Amino acid sequence: MSGGGGGGGDGGSSNNTEWRFNQTLRNVQVRMIIERSFPGKVLLSQRSEPLSPPDYSSIFDRDEDEPNEGSQEGKGPSPGNSIDNTSAKKSNCPSTSSTNSLPDAQGIVFGARATDSARIAKFTEELSRPAVTLDKLRKLAWSGAPPYMRPNIWRLLLYIPDSDRVDEEIDMLSQIAVDCPRTAPDVTFFQNPQIQKSLERILYTWSIRHPASGYVQGIKDLVTPFLVVFLSEHLEGNIDTWSMDDLSSQDISNIEADCYWCLSKFLDGMQDHYTFAQPGIQRLVFRLKELVRRIDEPLSKQIEEQELEFLQFSFGWFNCLLIREVPFHLATRLWDTYLAEGDYLPDFLLYIAASFLLTWSDKLQKLDFQEMVMFLQRLPTRTWGHHELEMVLSRAYMWHTMFKSSPSHLTS
Predict the structure, then answer these.
(1) Where are the residues of the annotated region Disordered (predicted)?
(2) Of 225, 125, 229, 240, which is closest to residue 191 (Cα–Cα)?
């Protein structure tokens, strides 16, 4: 990954390709949704049939500079298939009055006659409209787009979804923007606006690339260990002394790309933890209840008698992989074990959660329902160090080793 200093040979090329893809996706999507360079409101309808190739006879029979008198493209956009393009002036598309001074792109064009002055005028006219008609733009682009217009044309043709999709993405981005300032509230560094913007970009890109789950609130916490580790390659000293001003824009892009790809790989085996109704977490909660009953029957009985549901406290633990329940300085140590478990992590999480809960077994057995709820919401872990965390992980390993040969003890 690019944030790791790069590699040699084919590996370096592959990593660079991955970074470029992520960079392109992020830049295009975020700019279009946030900055609204173009378009504004999307007013599209899905095309129900393939686009027919244009009729070339009239194009090649007439003079290059002669406009097509039969064209209807000077008329207004048809309803239901246009894009509000009030910000089109921000693009690099020239006005129709400047066609005589257009750059000569004949030597680099791909596709016949893409730089005819008449065709350029048509592209310019269409892209300069308050509402771009995509069907007309598709017909123009079918026989080749002027190279200097191609980036904007391709963005319009490829990255503009239907109106419902855009509304969903805008809502998702708004939710991410609201959640990011709440990240690790005890760590001052995460209140930095630049860090919050990086988190927004990473989470937004991940969410649109994983539409089955989209954005789930707990995922923002899972990015933070990756972000801290990859920042530590570029910034020295304690996290409290770090400054984003010491990083170049390229460094930041590389770090964000590394966080995105690592988060994606990390969650590959836990997709159903974050899809609708989060069934993967629901299963873990059920199995945790059964495991505690087998390991610590007195505590299990007390929880049952007080009518406390495991879902009430452990769902949040699994959703954030316990990162909110321990001091942030222990998060990277916890992630060492998580990453080492690899594909087996979802199963091992069960034993970590059981070990974590049973740390306070003696105390919990003496509490009533209300006291248990209050205690579990504010666990006394703020003063924890590596020793306490190692004890939790050691017990989890021991129980996992004991029970893994007899998996029928926990029926999922």
Answers:
(1) 1-20, 39-104
(2) 240
